Amino acid sequence: MQSNDKTGRVFLVGAGPGDPGLITVKGVDCIAMADVVVYDYLASPALLAHANPDAEMIYVGKKGGDHTLPQDGINALIVEKARQGNTVARLKGGDPFIFGRGGEEAEVLIAAGIPFEVVPGVTAAIGASAYAGIPLTHRDYTSDVAFVTGHEDPTKSESSVDWKALATGIGTLVFFMGVKNLPTITGNLAANGRPADTPVAVIRWGTTPKQKTVTGTLATIVDETRRAGIKAPAIIIVGGVVNLRKTMRWFENRPLMGRRIVVTRAREQASGLVRQLTEYGAECIQCPTIRVVPPKDWEPADKAIEALDRYDWIVFTSVNGVDFFFRRLIEKGLDVRALGHIKTATIGPATAHRLQARGLKSDIVPESYRAESVVDAFAATPVKGSRILLPRAKEARSVLPVELTRMGATVDEVTVYETRRVEDNAAELIARLEDGTIDMVTFTSSSTVKNFHRLLPPDRVRDLMDGVTVASIGPITSETARDLGLSVTMEAQTYTIPGLIQAILGHQA
What region holds the Tetrapyrrole methylase domain (predicted)? Predict the structure, then answer.
């Protein structure tokens, strides 16, 4: 991936104001092609998932008043990495050229003779105001807007802000990085002619599930902000358009807004659940407790694949079973045609859908999404003398093979995947439970429950989980949770991810 030239290149990328969905397509491409990603405090961690696994990731802070690396050090770092022949993505919150010091970094790159590109981003002024329901311009209010720093260079002898012009000449004012100086800002505006009853909004963590908005007037906003505990990062909006928030607020009205929900599902499978919870306003804390991997020994599955002509049925109990079985089928030089004579059964619509995507329509999809329901469905289908292949997880429940054998079938149970414990996030999980900054934990299988439980100190489970809502995908998962001493608050009526989402929304209503 490295440049063949002696000198690499640098992309100054605007990451947007917080919502990872607001980054540009080109911004994502730059992250993906980079050998080195240099990112700051306001760049969403979710964006780092787009990086090449081999890329060097360097955090440089840029948190208000607490820089991990000062700006001169950042400048030197990106020059050094580019001179080594790397493609560097300098990931900056908001837009690089709107109070992002991107201009300074560009000047350093020009002086060093290093090629660079600027990839604009959604600035916090636009993103946070839109998510707060405040249009910065409106034909009934104002046709002009100004972006102003609320934190000027402390080495300057006097302010370069024309407070008189701002106070009386501009309809909407947006101040960046100004929460600490809010009394000075409101005082200067009032002293230079802005009416004391001018509406003001302060928005913290705009466009994220942590977004919090406080409104008031020039005369009251300092006290309102102090009472609400608003700190950086935040922007300040001054002007009549702030009144439109009363009817236009939409982002903070979502049913799960601000709820902090732990997702324990394997990371490669969690995206659907995370996306839906996030769309409803939740802050998702990804803490995968399991990792899905191929089996240590493929021999039993390989023997079954080589003898597919002997089977009458194949039963898939999960999406993972479908994926890993077909992956191995293709690795053995076969495809879906090898299953043309075999009837199929699946547990749940998601598994049936995944099988259909592989070119097979399931012959049996029980109404209830658990092994017992498959057994019930087979009760109306003669299977005596049939040979059934059951590709699934190691250490799966024994209900299916036992009951199908009792019905007269010959069942070959083969392992096509295993679940492994993941403990990488244990320290962060425990710290957040101690701080009371987790509202809910979701469990999508018995294995997620067991491994989550193992992450917690045995003598502290009850204490750490006190007050935390537990959401379960179904009765088997709930039973496992209760057996381990966890109190299940809600259980999905249909044992799917959409069913779990509906249970959570119903509980919140």
Answer: 10-221
